């Protein structure tokens, strides 16, 4: 009897290839936002890749709802006594819905007055049980340790949630999903990006607005899959102290969502890094023929484009991105 062998990275490859299909399904679902529509502030609670998705959504929510949205550490509830959340909403994002600290945070936020909404991929999870409303990601099983389709699906689920609060946004989310159906995520400069990552020792991943959340996720994946030192920055913040690191060899990857209001900031950062001799690469959804997306959808596309590049870089380094040596699928923290 022959035993079928699987190549390294096959899980991440197949799952990331499903990401935009998951996006289109999750972004167009109908969501009853409940009391969240009346929240005076929204706090996101998440870790890792889910926190990157939360960062993307925070910009979208603030722009559309004109209420403050910021991250709240789960340890406020898992290690501390919590904070008063009367009149606020809590958006808990957990792909597995099983991390103890996020379960405690969901319970704590709810008992302290918040309307708690969960975005999760696992039906009937403990996080869902602790929340008033759940928006499913609907990505199906995800077995590779690095999350891909559930990250992009989390962004889409958050867009559907926003559409449940603001009907005109729902139409824009649906239009973005329609624009992404069946498109290829192969970047025309994928080989050049991979070559740059293979020769890099330090990487800055830079974005602005929702692109900053995408930068957080790409930097995390470079560490997770490629054991490559990478840091995320806003295009504005990076021009302060972090710019000095450019005096050493540095690759700079700029994630451009294409939004008009961020172009000047990205252009300035690109010019400064090129002027000091950095290896600068800039990508946008327009590179694969996509435009007129919501900023959150554009950030999701940038992730979908970069996941295969990161996967192939890891494989070229002799690593198996499906099972990074020091990591596990569900991380239990406090």
UniProtKB/TrEMBL annotation:
One of its GO terms (molecular function) is transaminase activity. Residues 32-170, 193-324 form the SIS domain. It comes from Aliiroseovarius zhejiangensis. Pfam families: SIS. InterPro entries: GlmS/AgaS_SIS, GlmS/FrlB_SIS, SIS_dom, SIS_dom_sf. PANTHER family: AMINOTRANSFERASE-RELATED (PTHR10937:SF8), GLUCOSAMINE--FRUCTOSE-6-PHOSPHATE AMINOTRANSFERASE, ISOMERIZING (PTHR10937). The keyword Transcription does not apply. CDD domains: SIS_GlmS_GlmD_1 (cd05008), SIS_GlmS_GlmD_2 (cd05009). Keywords: Aminotransferase, Repeat, Transferase. This is Glucosamine--fructose-6-phosphate aminotransferase.
């Amino acid at each position: 009897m022959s035993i079928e062998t699987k190549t390294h990275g096959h899980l991440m490859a197949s799952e990331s290839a499903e990401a935009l299909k998951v996006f289109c399904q999750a972004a167009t679902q109908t969501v009853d936002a409940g009391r969240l529509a009346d929240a005076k502030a929204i706090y996101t609670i998440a870790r890792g890749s889910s926190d990157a998705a939360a960062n993307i959504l925070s910009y979208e929510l603030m722009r559309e709802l004109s209420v403050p949205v910021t991250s709240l550490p789960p340890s406020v509830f898992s290690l501390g006594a919590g904070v008063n959340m009367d009149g606020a909403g809590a958006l808990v994002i957990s792909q597995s819905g099983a991390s103890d600290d996020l379960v405690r945070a969901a319970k704590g936020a709810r008992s302290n007055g918040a309307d708690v909404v969960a975005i999760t991929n696992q039906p009937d999870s403990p996080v869902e049980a602790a929340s008033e409303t759940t928006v499913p990601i609907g990505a199906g099983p995800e077995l590779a340790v690095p999350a891909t389709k559930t990250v992009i699906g989390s962004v889409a689920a958050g867009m559907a949630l926003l559409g449940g609060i603001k009907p005109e946004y729902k139409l824009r989310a649906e239009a973005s999903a329609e624009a992404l159906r069946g498109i290829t995520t192969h970047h025309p400069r994928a080989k050049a990006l991979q070559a740059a990552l293979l020769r890099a020792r330090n990487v800055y991943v830079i974005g602005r607005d929702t692109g900053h959340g995408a930068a957080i996720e790409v930097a995390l994946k470079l560490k997770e899959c490629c054991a490559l030192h990478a840091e995320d920055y806003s295009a504005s913040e990076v021009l302060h102290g972090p710019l000095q690191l450019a005096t050493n060899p540095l690759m700079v990857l700029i994630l451009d969502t294409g939004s008009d209001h961020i172009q000047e900031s990205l252009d300035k950062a690109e010019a400064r890094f090129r002027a000091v001799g950095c290896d600068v690469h800039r990508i946008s959804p327009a590179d694969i023929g996509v435009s007129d997306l919501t900023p959150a959808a554009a950030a999701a596309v940038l992730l979908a484009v970069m996941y295969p590049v990161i996967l192939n870089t890891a494989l070229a380094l002799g690593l198996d991105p499906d099972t990074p040596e020091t990591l596990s699928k569900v991380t239990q923290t406090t």
